[in-house]
């Protein structure tokens, strides 16, 4: 599903953020990406989402090399990936529903179908009752779930999460991880970057560990 072949990423003036990175994530797999601050976790996720480009090497998603993707196919590629961040920058002058609807509206989906999908996504994250609320009136955990609903509303086969629970307390974090497991159960491929070593070792999923831009450990459960 996702394959890195000898990938290097060099940022101008900053040196190499990723070094000779090779890995493969199977369709439907859920894995954690760990490592110290600056190890290259966000960079790896950005390369999959085509927010950044590799300096060397090849990345394949669904068998297609991202380097060969014509420019007009990039929005389509991005629609297949739900990106979840620590800070979702929700629009405070729009309701929860309108925030979640954005990716579908941008993609030109018919209004009735948008409404149906938005309600389904809000239901999945347990926020249907708050569909008309303004994001500013929600708790941090609720805001994070709105961000997740927005990321999954287009039903992407891949979810990439970058420190998704960084500012949440342990109970709220557990809720978010339970949600990820539900997406995993229905066949979504998930890669979750986190510093939460304790949780990662408790959950029995593959762990990819980066150290100074290199993949130094790759294991099922340790
Ligand atoms: N846009 C950028 N321009 C220049 N350097 C960058 C850029 N993004 C990341 N870097 C550098 O690349 C290296 C890897 O950063 P990255 O954000 O991928 O690490 P990370 O493991 O996600 O860190 P954190 O856990 O702190 O988010 C760091 O040295 C960082 O300073």
UniProtKB/TrEMBL annotation:
Compartments it resides in: Cell inner membrane; Cell membrane
MF terms in GO: ATP binding; ATP hydrolysis activity; transmembrane transporter activity
Superkingdom of the source species: Bacteria
Membrane topology qualifier: Peripheral membrane protein
Residue span(s) of domain ABC transporter: 2-222
A GO CC term assigned to this protein in UniProt: plasma membrane
Pfam family of the protein (one): ABC_tran
Family: Belongs to the ABC transporter superfamily.
Xref: PANTHER family: CELL DIVISION ATP-BINDING PROTEIN FTSE (PTHR24220:SF470), IMPORT ATP-BINDING PROTEIN (PTHR24220)
Summary of subunit composition and partner proteins: Homodimer. Forms a membrane-associated complex with FtsX.
The name this protein goes by in its record: Cell division ATP-binding protein FtsE
Species this chain originates from: Halochromatium salexigens (Chromatium salexigens)
Lineage of producing organism: Bacteria, Pseudomonadati, Pseudomonadota, Gammaproteobacteria, Chromatiales
Gene: ftsE
């Amino acid at each position: 599903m996702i394959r890195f072949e000898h990938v290097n990423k060099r940022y101008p003036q900053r040196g190499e953020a990723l070094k000779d990175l090779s890995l493969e994530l199977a369709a439907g797999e859920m894995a954690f990406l760990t490592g110290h601050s600056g190890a290259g976790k966000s960079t790896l996720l950005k390369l999959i989402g085509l927010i950044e480009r590799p300096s060397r090497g090849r990345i394949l998603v669904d068998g297609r090399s991202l380097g060969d993707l014509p420019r007009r196919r990039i929005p389509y590629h991005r629609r297949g990936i739900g990106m979840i961040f620590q800070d979702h920058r929700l629009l405070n002058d729009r309701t929860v529903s309108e925030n979640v609807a954005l990716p579908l509206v941008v993609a030109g989906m018919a209004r009735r179908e948008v409404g149906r999908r938005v309600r389904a996504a809000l239901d999945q994250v347990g926020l249907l009752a708050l569909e008309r609320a303004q994001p500013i009136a929600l708790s941090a955990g609720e805001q994070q779930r709105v961000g997740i609903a927005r990321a999954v509303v287009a039903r992407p086969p891949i979810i990439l999460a970058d420190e998704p629970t960084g500012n949440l307390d342990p109970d709220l974090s557990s809720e978010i991880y339970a949600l990820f497991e539900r997406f995993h159960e229905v066949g979504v491929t998930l890669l979750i970057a986190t510093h939460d070593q304790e949780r990662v070792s408790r959950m029995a999923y593959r762990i990819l560990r980066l150290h100074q831009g290199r993949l130094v450990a790759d294991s099922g459960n340790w």
